[in-house]
Amino acid sequence: MKAVTWRGVNEIGVEDVPEPTILNSHDIIVEVGLSATCGSDLHLMGGYIPAMRAGDVLGHEFMGRVAEVGPAVTKHRVGDRVVVVSFVGCGKCWYCREGLWSLCDNGNPNPGLTEALWGQGIGGCYGYSHALGGWAGSHARYIRVPYADNGAFTIPEGVSDERALFASDAAPTGWTGAHQAEVRPGDVVAVWGAGGVGQMAARAAMVMGAERVVVIDRFDNRLQQVRTHIGAETLDYEEVNVPAELRELTGGRGPDVCIEAVGMEAHHPGPQYLYDQVKQQMRLQTDRPTAVREAIYACRKGGRVFTLGVFAGVVDRFPLGAVMNKALTLRGAQQHGHRYIPEILDLMSRDEVRTEHLATHVMALDDGPEGYRMFKEKEDGCVRAVFRPGG
Amino acid sequence: MTTTLGNVASLAARAGGSVVRQVKAVVDPAPARPAGTDHSASGWLVVTVVGEPSQIDTDRLPVPLAEFGDQLEVLVRAAPGDKGTELAARLRDRPSGSTLARLTGSDPQADLRSALRRAKQLIEVGEVLAVDPAPHGDRTPTPGGMLLEMWTRVAPKAGVR
Ligand SMILES: NC(=O)c1ccc[n+]([C@@H]2O[C@H](COP(=O)([O-])OP(=O)(O)OC[C@H]3O[C@@H](n4cnc5c(N)ncnc54)[C@H](O)[C@@H]3O)[C@@H](O)[C@H]2O)c1
Ligand SMILES: [Zn+2]
Ligand SMILES: [Zn+2]
């Protein structure tokens, strides 16, 4: 079958690869309907997560139809239209039972890699390097989904493929951020990054009762999407001083919750950017924490800062003094989508969560390299390139 | 990204272990310790599994552990805070492990770590999760790719250190 693969740093290919087969009794095989690019893939493309091998199939945000079921699967039948959460969770270990699904003890067959990096291994993720399990990704005609009773969700009839697709990764990631940062009614919430993840974090905060939600980015088309489709306010960080604007917007307090949805390749208009970029390229720091620094600085005293953006290793010039003296709570997580997706699908079916606008460019698998290039360069207003393996 | 910066990035990525090495350099006190002490001093390796201690019969351990026969000491105790049961195992005869031994696949401590992980999966999920054969394209041979393959072979056993 055809698949979009990682070939090397900034090199995406289209190759013929073998079809997946059922290997565990709780597996299903999904015939992929739609499969999206995600900001996380850009970190892989750039070589910032150096556990990719040439030939690895990319893609972790997808929906499709069940093509085959393993003998222990009880919830799904051949033909079901499903969306699959990007993380692999067993549903049985202590972490899964606590609802911390991306921390699953049994979802990553290569835990030693992340144990060495972080002290403990986390769960697995499709198409996301050998550090997160070496699972083949979804930019292909078929994908194997282990622990399918936990990870695959039947899509309600009224929800379109284009909408349901983002219940896989972008939306549950946003829900993870807003919920784990404990957004409460009356909160003012600021979100850094207006990509799919930032937009969904903003929507989640609104659903959870936030009084005011402000999204920060520099791309007009993305900020326009936030105002039109999400209903939140926006700030362009190239035009204003973000912490100053946020301070006045909040009566001098600062936002109660600051959600960072940018990640390790953040951009910055000032000289600090070059410093961070050079240090990262020289491998003196592994990540550029620009937006996290600003979020910590802007947050009100006693507030909550959440990093949804992906980081891999160590960062430099981290404002620990502000965290400590302002009594901030700093948290982060890979998404625990298993617990949020049923609610998200329900909200989607009631038009309270709309996501199809994120799929700005729908294309065939053959256009994989072009799709990734456009997504990376944000060319032609690309917010997410989406592949349709069926053509 | 400029070409020069891009080249540096790809070189670093091909070196593969740069991120791990860098993080370890920041947080790991290893150089201050005697060589070969990646494991706890007592030799016990422990995993936490769901369920009560009474559900684990140490006379009928899951196959991956049973295979060690009487080379193994095993202890079972309740984990604090309702986190399940701690299953501890120790080799009676312990050679000192080294990074080289682990990478060449002949480290009994690492084999025990791997067995504990598989035993945990058998207890919790009923089977051991398989990832291979996973579909993939052409594995162009590169030094980074080979290093990564070596890592992933040992990754189920212990950390890459
Ligand atoms: N935690 C999770 O489970 C999870 C899941 C999916 C994605 N992610 C991560 O979330 C991040 C965002 O993902 P995405 O798909 O939306 O990516 P994206 O690349 O589409 O969007 C990132 C946005 O951040 C903006 N940005 C860059 N620098 C900024 C700055 N200094 N201040 C404000 N905005 C800035 C960019 O202009 C861009 O619009 C990535 O790091 C991705 O890896 C995490
Ligand atoms: Zn993602
Ligand atoms: Zn689990």
Automatic annotation (TrEMBL), chain A:
Q: Which residues form the Alcohol dehydrogenase-like C-terminal domain?
A: 196-265
This chain belongs to the protein called Threonine dehydrogenase
Q: Which family does it belong to?
A: Belongs to the zinc-containing alcohol dehydrogenase family.
What is the top-level taxon of the source organism? Bacteria
- What keywords are annotated for this sequence in UniProt? Metal-binding, Oxidoreductase, Zinc
GO MF terms here are: oxidoreductase activity; zinc ion binding
Cite the InterPro entries for this sequence.
ADH-like_C (IPR013149), ADH-like_N (IPR013154), ADH_Zn_CS (IPR002328), GroES-like_sf (IPR011032), NAD(P)-bd_dom_sf (IPR036291)
What cofactor does this one take? Zn(2+)
* CDD domains associated with the record: FDH_like_1
Q: Which residues form the signal peptide?
A: none
Q: Which Gene3D superfamilies match?
A: Medium-chain alcohol dehydrogenases, catalytic domain, NAD(P)-binding Rossmann-like Domain
Is Zinc among this UniProt entry's keywords?
yes
The Alcohol dehydrogenase-like N-terminal domain sits at 25-148
TrEMBL record, chain B:
The highest taxon in the source lineage is Bacteria
UniProt protein name = Uncharacterized protein
